[in-house]
Amino acid sequence: MRLWFACLFLALAGCQKSSITAVKEEAKDETLHRYALHGEVLRLDPQGKIAAIKHQKIGDWMEAMTMEFPVKDQADFNKLREGEKISGTVFVQGTTYWVGEVQEDTGAAPASK
What was the pLDDT predicted at 6? Predict the structure, then answer.
């Protein structure tokens, strides 16, 4: 009986590993989409490299709203200042998204909503 449970455990562990590998492979195959971002930085979380941005509509991906964006590149995160209007790029790959190519946007219209 113990042998049977051991075999079942190993079989399930093997299935789990292969499904994790499949998810990682699927993510690699996802197309990377780029969208222009215009908005205002409301809050920054330096520890998590997260920026809360009140943004205008982002292409056909997102309506205007306030949301938190991860910022992968430390140099881009260092450019952000609370209260500053910015332009940049939202990168979307599958269910993963982040902000990059950040620049101060002195001519930006206020974000709606």
Answer: 52
